[in-house]
Amino acid sequence: MVDLLAGHAEVAAEVEEGFARVLATGAFIKGPDVAAFEAEFAAFSGTAHCVGVANGTDALELALRAAEMPAGAGVVMPANTFVASAEAVVRAGGRPVFADVDDEFLLLDPERAAESRGDAWGLLPVHLNGQLAPMAPLAALAAETGLRLFEDAAQCQGATQDGRGAGSWGLAAGTSFYPGKNLGAYGDGGAVLTNDAEIDRLVRELGDHGSSRKYVHDRLGFNSRLDTLQAVVLRAKLRRLADWNAARRAAAARYDALLADFEDVRLPRTAPGNVHVWHLYAVRVPRRDEVLAELNAAGIGAGIHYPVPVHLQPAFRELGHRPGDFPVAERAAAEILTLPLFPQITEEQQVRVAEALGKALARAGASGSGA
């Protein structure tokens, strides 16, 4: 689905030089490359502050903790997300409050969020597959109800909505640098983006054992810091990210053209105002599991994001949800099929994917090309 080696080939020399620099200085924790990356990524994202942390889950948890979320507080989020979104809320002492998504873009529906909120304290839209959730109406909802607005930006590095990037709409955004992301490290990594100086200060303290200076611990924190070697990788990739995102948009447009006549394939769309960065190209098809098996058997690295909505995961059974609670998210979970997409994918490879998809649909009893 993602060719990580193709991306590495473009940055290998720069990363090798950076690793040598770090190894020569021994600055493995809080080295100068970390501070440089934080400044560069904040500027790229259009926010005042960036704090590098150990992973994206920690980033969300630290943002919530820095905002002093009360114990047991509810945080509204979409049901169709990776488990880490809800996991971070629970780890921070809160309670996930799920809401359904719109059927066209599969992003958090502001009306459903308003219906689900109850006495919730926070609102956590997820920027899914490379584009932002509808932030203007969600920000309006937060302002009207007093909800604290955060953003799960793990899949949207470089995406904007109405000219604004993730982290600029609410108190803070958490993002992930897992290797398969648009901006991926060579291991785990993450960051908190914010325009709030106090959130920035508290995230730094909480992620460094609650310490503002050595051996002085003002609050109970934990260890969540971005390693210097990962910062070297991220700096090298960040210099290429705008071009890589443009290549992803071109590849998504090719898929749109190649699959336009496939009767039973529902193509992804870009929501109004969004500049999409296509972290994932996820279509919707009937008899999805059969189609996926046929594609994989043909050597196509397709996959699923995500087959079980979070509200139906065993880990969250205590919340008491049942099938049918969030029908749009549940229906999409049975139809989503993620096709291979990365900046270096070739037109020839995409043609092969489209041809294999047509054959897979036919074998599964669905319709391929209408031609």
UniProtKB/TrEMBL annotation:
<protein>
    <submittedName>
        <fullName>DegT/DnrJ/EryC1/StrS family aminotransferase</fullName>
        <ecNumber>2.6.1.-</ecNumber>
    </submittedName>
</protein>
<comment type="similarity">
    <text>Belongs to the DegT/DnrJ/EryC1 family.</text>
</comment>
<keyword id="KW-0808">Transferase</keyword>
<dbReference type="InterPro" id="IPR015421">
    <property type="entry name" value="PyrdxlP-dep_Trfase_major"/>
</dbReference>
<dbReference type="InterPro" id="IPR015422">
    <property type="entry name" value="PyrdxlP-dep_Trfase_small"/>
</dbReference>
<dbReference type="GO" id="GO:0008483">
    <property type="term" value="F:transaminase activity"/>
</dbReference>
<dbReference type="InterPro" id="IPR000653">
    <property type="entry name" value="DegT/StrS_aminotransferase"/>
</dbReference>
<dbReference type="Pfam" id="PF01041">
    <property type="entry name" value="DegT_DnrJ_EryC1"/>
</dbReference>
<keyword id="KW-0663">Pyridoxal phosphate</keyword>
<dbReference type="InterPro" id="IPR015424">
    <property type="entry name" value="PyrdxlP-dep_Trfase"/>
</dbReference>
<keyword id="KW-0032">Aminotransferase</keyword>
